[in-house]
């Protein structure tokens, strides 16, 4: 089941905003693109759950959005 509400900003993100620290322009563009294309996040979620017998059980890990963003960051950096 996809999350419908936008998650609360983390303390680390809030602190970075308070200090005026911004993302690199390339990373900000990628982040904005991902924010505008929720269908890609849903596709990642389906891919991650494919083949699992009980996808709703077990411990909570990374969200599909976190998985996609970490993959992109790894490829960019």
Draw up the topology in text.
Elements: H1 11-19, H2 25-36, H3 38-49, H4 64-76
Helix pairs in contact: 3-4
Termini Cα gap: 31 Å
Rg over CA atoms: 14 Å
Helix-residue proportion: 55-70%
Q: DSSP helix count?
A: 4
The overall pLDDT, averaged over residues, is 84
Q: Which band does the percent of strand residues land in? A: under 5%
**Main beta sheet: strand number and arrangement?**
none
Count of distinct strands: 0
Name the structural class.
mainly alpha
Order of helices and strands: HHHH
Query: Spans of 5+ residues with little confidence (pLDDT < 50)?
Result: none
How does the overall form come out from the CA principal axes? globular
Structure, explained:
The chain is mainly α and 77 residues long. The chain has four helices and no strands. It has helices spanning 11-19, 25-36, 38-49, 64-76. The longest helix has 13 residues, at 64-76. The N and C termini lie far apart (31 Å). The model has no long low-confidence stretch (mean pLDDT 84).
What key phrases describe this protein's structure?
77 residues; 4 helices
Write a concise synopsis of the structure shown:
With 77 residues, the chain is mainly α. It has helices spanning 11-19, 25-36, 38-49, 64-76.
